[in-house]
Specification:
The protein is an alpha+beta fold. It has four helices and ten strands; from the N terminus they run ββββαβαββαβββα. The protein has a five-stranded mixed beta sheet with strand order 1-2-3-5-4. Strands 6, 7, 8, 9 and 10 form a five-stranded antiparallel beta sheet that branches. Helix 1 crosses helix 2 and helix 2 runs parallel beside helix 4. The termini are far apart. Bound molecules: uridine-5'-diphosphate. Uridine-5'-diphosphate binds next to helix 2 and helix 3. The site of uridine-5'-diphosphate has 12 residues, from helix 2 and helix 3.
């Protein structure tokens, strides 16, 4: 018989597998404007999950007759680098990547004024460089920063996080272990300025009273992440300002 090492997701003292408390987010790092050739770009790290996003457009696309006359189309491609996971990921797009591309597109679309750019396409690419749970939410955070960096008019940034459950305990910002062995994983995306929820998925089960609590916990986490996004955008604008002023001297 194979002996499996027991996985402890939550110690009696309330510590999670990576030492966090139930409501603690992983360290967040965000940088906007990391790719010169893209119209907008961002690199987002939530702990060991690292995602790069690039935006191109609004731009012409062929065949033109397939583009709607009254708005831009948003195309999203979510991919995982072959080296981003423990077992090498095959380079061809998997069903999961195709599904997540759709999920991310639907989470971003309500925040955009696509009608301002008829007959054009906006392409969003998100590439997972390292995966440790929450790659769709990190992709949404990175993509929305990259869209803002590309100067695409938005109602507001889109911010995302996953909350979950280990027994009766709600946890926030799940890592890979918690995603796999926890009792529930609930990714949420929101446009904080309007309060609109643009993504809500559920893997596992969540009793109704815990669901209400999980939503509240998620909103607190989203506020923290949203502030980091705004900070990263501000830093980008300050860098641009410094560059412009430097050139004028
Ligand atoms: N994962 C993996 N290999 C894969 C796909 C996923 O190891 O081919 C891991 C990865 O750490 C990912 C986690 O499983 O973050 C959870 O994946 P899920 O499909 O729930 O999406 P995510 O939480 O990343 O949005």
């Amino acid at each position: 018989m194979e002996l499996k090492e027991e996985i402890i997701l939550l110690t009696p003292e309330g510590k999670r597998s990576d030492g966090r408390r139930w409501d603690e987010l992983r360290p967040i790092r965000m940088r906007v404007g990391v790719l010169k050739r893209a119209d907008g770009s961002a690199l987002v790290e939530m702990g060991n999950t690292k995602v790069l996003a690039a935006v191109y457009g609004p731009r012409e696309s062929h065949p033109r007759h397939l583009l709607p006359p009254d708005r831009a189309i948003l195309r999203v491609a979510y991919r995982m680098a072959t080296f981003s996971v423990e077992e090498r990921k095959k380079p061809q797009p998997s069903r999961r990547e195709i599904e997540l591309s759709k999920v991310i597109k639907e989470a971003l679309e309500p925040a955009l004024y696509l009608e301002e750019f008829p007959r054009t396409a906006i392409d969003v690419y998100t590439l997972v460089l390292q995966a440790d749970g929450g790659t769709r939410t990190a992709s949404i955070n990175a993509a929305s920063l990259a869209l803002a960096d590309a100067g695409i008019p938005m109602k507001g940034l889109v911010t995302a996080v996953a909350v979950g459950r280990i027994g009766d305990q709600i946890i926030v910002d799940l890592n890979d272990l918690e995603d796999k062995y926890g009792d529930a994983d609930m990714p949420i995306a929101m446009v904080p300025v309007t309060g609109e929820i643009t993504l809500l998925q559920m893997d596992g089960t969540m009793p109704p009273d815990l669901f209400e609590e999980a939503l509240k916990v998620a909103k607190r986490a989203l506020e923290i992440i949203y502030n980091e996004q705004k900070k990263a955008l501000r830093e980008r604008y300050l860098r641009i300002k410094d560059e412009v002023l430097g050139e004028e001297k």
